[in-house]
């Protein structure tokens, strides 16, 4: 079995990194060539077919997080992000979690929620009629996807709720749909639109909005890891991390930043494998406020031996079939590198990455502070922005760090002195 614990991966040349990942994921020469030579992995012609009014493409850095062991399987995790420190932090968090066996993660089946808004109806009477004709409604919905029906998936349940608004009472009919290994937006919307005329007939009302909900509370994922006390830095550091968590869990201003760090990990993986990052972010932030107060998405405590225990539970709607994941060449290669066999497995990897990132962030905050490593990486960006060549960047970074002056002006000044 391939081992994701790769020593000093960050010190290796690009060619060596590609060779290691190529061997780990059994990438072909063509796939390695795409990673090495194709700028962003997508031509303008493809981009023009994906969106409207295209004028070009926009690339972000693609890196690899190492050391991940999730449900006793090793992964190297592709991450697309522009922010320094994130990939290093995720790798470091995974390395510490690995000591106690890695991450244990569970994921719900891929149930999507579709909503149909019904106006101008007697809600109580309408709900009773809908329940009486549930089978007919489900049958109509499932007629819109032969693929899901053949897999014994598709629309499974119908629920109804009444909401009170300033505009009056509204009936919301919800379809629960097993979308398999897809994210499921298209099939959910199709089914919602298909059953709307029947719902109008049943209720005597008017169907207005017919669309999925991105608040995917029927697709929950829960990750847990134990971080060995000694590797964390001792009992005092463990206690400080828990105090840092309590700060985030009880103050919305801290919670937003704390959760943003979690999403650094999750969204980086989402970007790499072509997921809907906006839907993922929206669902996670809504779930952070499920108690009525915006709180930490993660929970931190210690076990009887004093080891740090982290838990992250979020709604997460992802897919390995359909969408950009099957169109974008680099997204397809990243999926091959990740080597997941189901949407649930992908969700498990993404959630574990979020927890690893969260651990490293709050540990840094609880000890030396976040800026020590972050600013060194930021200094590299500033040196490059000042016009330094690759051979000059390290020299300029060291001088900026020694002078405790990390800015674009300082980088330009030092470049002029070389």
If you had to describe this structure to a student in words, what would you say it looks like?
- By secondary structure, the protein is α+β, with helices and mostly antiparallel strands.
- The protein contains 17 helices and 10 strands.
- The chain has helices spanning 14-25, 29-37, 44-50, 86-99, 123-132, 134-142, 146-150, 185-203, 229-232, 235-250, 252-272, 277-288, 329-338, 343-366, 371-385, 390-403, 408-417, and strands at 62-70, 73-80, 103-107, 111-119, 154-165, 168-178, 206-213, 220-227, 298-302, 308-315.
- A 4-stranded antiparallel beta sheet has the order 3-8-10-9. A 4-stranded antiparallel beta sheet has the order 5-6-4-7.
- The longest helix has 24 residues, at 343-366.
- The protein is globular, with a radius of gyration of 24 Å.
- The model has no long low-confidence stretch (mean pLDDT 94).
What is the topology?
Elements: H1 14-25, H2 29-37, H3 44-50, E1 62-70, E2 73-80, H4 86-99, E3 103-107, E4 111-119, H5 123-132, H6 134-142, H7 146-150, E5 154-165, E6 168-178, H8 185-203, E7 206-213, E8 220-227, H9 229-232, H10 235-250, H11 252-272, H12 277-288, E9 298-302, E10 308-315, H13 329-338, H14 343-366, H15 371-385, H16 390-403, H17 408-417
Antiparallel strand pairs: 1-2, 3-8, 4-6, 4-7, 5-6, 8-10, 9-10
